[in-house]
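Section: Multi-chain targets

For targets with more than one molecule, the full set of components is provided together so that the structure can be written out for the assembly as a whole rather than chain by chain. Components appear in the order listed by the source. The example entry contains two components.
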Amino acid sequence: GQQLNQSPQSMFIQEGEDVSMNCTSSSIFNTWLWYKQDPGEGPVLLIALYKAGELTSNGRLTAQFGITRKDSFLNISASIPSDVGIYFCAGRLLFSSGTYKYIFGTGTRLKVLA
Amino acid sequence: ETGVTQSPTHLIKTRGQQVTLRCSSQSGHNTVSWYQQALGQGPQFIFQYYREEENGRGNFPPRFSGLQFPNYSSELNVNALELDDSALYLCASSLGGIAETQYFGPGTRLLVL
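Its structure, encoded as tokens over all components, is:
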């Protein structure tokens, strides 16, 4: 199935370091979402972006909607052990019929070393 | 806690059987989307229901079907199960509209033997 390209695929970082991950697509989206998923649970929404160029923060998390509408990035500052998990981006495709669907990225697996 | 619940939490079926998964959306949400998440992959969009009608569909065969009820809860039905149908099935509810965001349930893990 169709998935967005996320990078890096996985990363190990030291506690306190900043983290950056991004998501790219060949399609244009009108909404970008970032989710975190812990083992055995559903994804939890972190940040939603609705306009090209938009920069939004949620605590230590900052995300941006790319100007081309084909990419987005997520930054986590001063990482802590509970940041460990899988981070997914998702783009929403809106069709002229008024229907839409979400396409998810391949995920970035983050491990934080205390 | 997102207020979205799913049942059952786990399920084991054999190839060729049929399965029904259930989802109760967050209070006030009129839109439910279903996703399939294979191990190590991101969620794949199956379809979405808005006010009891299908409102969009991903690349899944017709043996994947759904229903949404007047209280906005939803079911996902899969007929003629195949081994590759083994996955975590997630539902997500939202209020609908351009600025809507969706909230996920914990998922149902289906194993097809």
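The mean pLDDT of chain A is 91.
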